[in-house]
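We close this part of the discussion by returning to an individual protein. Part of our work consisted of pairing the sequence of a single chain with a tokenised description of its backbone. No coordinates are needed to read the tokens, only the vocabulary itself. The amino acid sequence and the backbone structure tokens for this protein are reproduced below:
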Amino acid sequence: MSTAPIRPHAGDAYDLAVPPLVRFGTGRVGEAGEVVRMLGRRAWLVGGRRSLRESPALPRLEAALEAAGVECTVVAESAGEPTVDQVAAALAQLPREGREEAVIVAVGGGSAIDLAKAVAAMATNLDPAEAACRDADAAVVDHLEGVGSRTITRWPLPLVAVPTTAGTGAEATRNAVISCPRRRFKKSMRSPLMVPRAAIVDPALSLGCDRETTVASGLDAITQLIESFVCRFARPIPQALVLEALPRAVAALPRVLAAPADLDARAAMSHAAFVSGIALANSGLGMAHGVAAALGVECGTPHGLACALMLPVAMRVNEAAARGAFARLERAVDPAGSGDDEALASAFVRRIERLCLEAGAPRRLADVGLARDRIAWLAENSGGASMRGNPAELDPGRLLPILEAAY
């Protein structure tokens, strides 16, 4: 018998960053006061204008905070996907007193949570003069990967994420996606320090989502689950979580669209969204997200709809390179299925194409307002970390005919 030591393979090295505390389940928003009280005495709320003011979460959240003796103040409201200007304006309005006891509480979809994460990080990583200035946009830009040179070196203000949609998984990620329409880019502020200190995932809070939001967020979560599983940087723990969550999501999304009050199906989608956030944060993504970011800049396409459009296209492009991974996902969704990897991978691609079609996702780039003469721009600007993780190697030259065919 060999006595040679077992040596880990270099490829087995990985990081894993997840929220230290997760409260998942119907009604658990009522525990927000207890959770916030562990971290501080003041709750500074950040939310979407609609999600914060109209969501059933707000009165329940405020009641829970009051019962725990936590002072509550709304400090910022997002208007659509967060921009550099929104982050700078929120920093300028942030209270100067009481920060040592403040906890940022993010209530809403991915846009609201990303705004909150950026504000929490900038509040501690800018000096007071920078943070108080309405021209702080330059300092915010300087912390965005790909355009700036500064990094997050200090712990952000503690952040508790309370999602009201089931899609982006922002409650579990280490980044905030920030747009700058004036400079025409969409980039991430990213650091392991930016993972929320706690996530309260209450599926009942998604009951207020309309059909369009449910489709966009649900297909965003499914895109993240698939892309993180097959990407070049896939890691074992996120992959194991995806194998558990994706089958439930594939079954649950049609149920939610047919019966919006189906709380069991909504719970499956909220779980899938949370897992998708862990998976993308600790593995990576691919072509669908790479193109979706550029579509958001060019056409203002909501991120979830852009992902829903690009997912079937990306899966066809990656079918050969990711055949084994797609086959594993098909076996997870349908354990009774049979066939070799090639047959199962093809079945999985067709399954997701049908799901997107039945959900009513946009099918062509023209459907989201892209002008034909901007396809070349889209190919040139669809890159970044997401594209680097794509199973099939793509550069603008290879991507251009793919996008032309999808127009």
Remarks:
- The longest strand covers residues 71-78.
